[in-house]
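Worked example 4.2. Below are the chains of a multi-component assembly; read each line carefully before continuing.
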Amino acid sequence: MLLTANKNLNIGNMSIENIIAEAVSGAVTALYGLECQPSSVVPQPTRKEFEGNLTVVVFPWVKAARKAPEQVAREIGDYLVANEPAVKAYNVVKGFLNIVIEPTYWNKVLERIAGTENYGSRTATESDPLVMVEYSSPNTNKPLHLGHLRNILLGYSLSQILKACGNRVVKTNIVNDRGIHICKSMLAWQKWHNGETPESTGIKGDHLIGDCYVDFDKHYKAEVKELMAKGMTQEEAEAASPLMLEAREMLRRWEQKDPEVRKLWETMNRWVYDGFDQTYARMGVDFDKIYYESDTYLEGKEKVLEGLENGVLYRKDDGSVWADLTPDGLDHKLLLRSDGTSVYMTQDIGTAKLRFRDYPIDKMIYVVGNEQNYHFQVLSLLLDRLGFKWGKDLVHFSYGMVELPEGKMKSREGTVVDADDLMAEMVSGAREVAEAAGKTDGLDDAQKAEIAEIVGMGALKYFLLKVDPRKNMTFNPKESIDFNGNTGPFIQYTYARIRSVLRRAAEQGLNIEDYGDVVPNEKEISLIQRLASYPSVVQEAGRSYSPALIANYIYDLAKEYNQFYHDCPLLREENVAVRSLRLQLSGVTAEVIASGMALLGIKVPERM
RNA sequence: GCUCCGGUAGUUCAACGGAUAGAAUAGAAGUUUCCUAAACUUUAGAUAGGAGUUCGAUUCUCCUCCGGAGUACCA
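Applying the procedure described above to all two chains together yields the following structure tokens:
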């Protein structure tokens, strides 16, 4: 089974939630003779405006008990106080039973968390599922943009989360390195950029190729316009454009493995990959295995022909090969053109074949935009028919588009937000803010640069990951991404501040002594309670494929800690036990922040 | 046309069917002889519209309206 749960933090063998769930279920059975599974009782954190730590909704039992909700709640509350040592008191508001946990219980919870290595995650063993996550999937004719950033960050973060949930994860990338688009760039390079290299121009390789592509489009458009002025329709003009004909010819030569074309292709692709590698490195992401469509597109054809022999697919009179998906409520789908060449779908089948050959995949996750929902619905059915055991339940991690205030980004209108530019802006912005606030005084240039890099990239990543991945989101290039409020830097700052206090505590020789008998205050309890829920948040994020859950959780944690920090002295606290509790609480909070941020692929600075 | 996704404060985002719908930002007003003010506190402001299921609906069902995407022998 994928994503086995390792539930909340245990006390003895049980989390406080489970203790309460067991006790409530026992109460319901004892009081009303009802069968009640502990798993059906889900205590939730009590809302701030009420007294208590955990709340149980009693409405489900009201009918069978034949009593008013308030009375049912009181009866269960009395039972808990009498029979469950962890329960100190309770209060009832309508059908809500608010339970107060014995305060010193929380100290044990904190101790347990502090003593848990890699708190919140589980290391995979050989018997755990092998999950392959595909993300990034760039074309080689243009540099990465904001949409890719969301894709890449989601894919990387998802991989981290799945690992933390105890899966073996293989991160993969499929590079679309062949086809007419790359020929266009190659042609434009020959015509208008001949001799230029990333070294000679100082332009990053992927950007240089992108410039070529833009030039092709510019000249091509001009040609079409000219031909239309001579009386052709747009369609005719597009077909007759000498540039387009040349590009098609180049593609033919590429497919025939013409040495000259292949050499140029390899050279230019190398430039692009060097450029992409720089971008990936700055983002802090990586891949375990990269596939290239130039290697996989022929494999797909073979697999399709195999399907034809098995009678899973059919051939039309003109020679084209199709799948009849009408039994599944979809349409007919083309898999090989009448000239025998592959389409997009065929390439994905070929890639799947190679991957399956390379790895014993239990689950395949494709991180691809929601505009391709239909494609993946079809792919799943086809892979299943063609005999891939994981085809039926492949996961299309379908994320929403990043839009500008005016709508979609359009390369033709030059509104595409370039990934490298944006990262550079974020980092320099972070540096300006730090210098303006006098935060960088006394640091050398390398330190300043390192902190700016961590903070600027943190702001960008958090901005893109805090939103529910399924939803479209808006990015306004005119307003730079914030460093205040619900942001990455806010969380990073909280971490840096804790680390700073802990450094001072160490300097002053303040150690953590026994704090078992301290009665924690409200803020401390609520922080411990939140820390205790971290593992279940990680599990839920893995189950529902949502880095946003982690982001929201860490934000709430940081906010809660900042309130605590504001109200409760640490170093100045005279009572050794109380101070120890607070130092421990701070240390654990810092660890959980760092751990959660790592799941998002975000670094945390020791000072900022 | 058909299919899918979305519509929550001015704006950007939250809310396993649970309490008085939370944050942030922008606005107004405060906190620094004190462990980092990228912080903290106070304040004002929203579920597109209509039916239904339910003790209880932003959440589930149906209808209407408004956005977005897909429906290629493009990728």
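Take a moment to check your reading of the output against the notes. The mean pLDDT of chain A is 92. The first strand of chain A starts at residue 44 and ends at 45.
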